[in-house]
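User: Hey, quick favor. My workstation is busy. Could you predict this chain's structure for me?
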Amino acid sequence: MRDFNSNPTNLVGFAVSTMNARLLDNVKLIEQLSTLGWPVVIVNQHTTQEGKLNPEAGGMNHPHVRVIQSAQLGLSHSRNQAMEELQKRSVRWAVLCDDDVTLDLGECAALASWLEGDAPTSSWDNVGAVTTRLMKSPSEPWRAYQEAASNVVGTGTASLRRIQFVNSMELVVHLDALAAWNVTFNPRFGLGAPPVNGGEEVLLMHDILRAGGALISTPFAVRLHPDESSGQVLNVQAAFTQGAVHKTVFGHPTWWGLVAIFAWKRLKSGNWSRISDYLRGGAWASRHD
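Assistant: No problem, here it is.
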């Protein structure tokens, strides 16, 4: 069994995002973060004074845990704050955590060992992030792991299509590389950044690829997320977000091909009203280029 506390020189840390102290409802994650003893930065965005997170209430008053209270809303802002603080503590890799996930501690230790020296690469300088397997339960993955599709490089259509299917809870980001490339999460995207409801992870990966960096997939199942993702239901906001993300990443003229594909799928499903939402998202992204 892997040593849960084996994390040489703070190689790996956790960037945890929550709002209005909702993390306190996830007793298991708080216990796991405390047990593991690795660097943790929790950014609690609050809309009221009552929404502030009291570390004493959740038993998070440990030297390795830092709680940041922020009145600035938006998931991208939260992730950026947490990653910046982890880098100040000389952490090299950040596991992104929403407040509704739990961890597999053994898989966390396996990932740290792999990053320390077991990985099949001589240098991490050009690797912007690694992806892990996201699980619904210990025996049920969100998607099949494909060994053959281990690396994503370049900004060709195939690479840009692949990053559309990576969930933020699958990412472990390389803080040193992101800082060198001046790459952060785009604050115009992500939950809490109206009118979109996500897409921040795709924009981050796109910026990594544009900087000449690579994404490497791994088999480690670090996080569990049994609930449905906010982007899985194609409502007005999700369709708008897809249009905005696709337009930002693919640009002209490829985006118009995606419009045709999106429209064809919606017409087949009878959900044709989402087509106008997708187009509005693309128009919104064009105005902010």
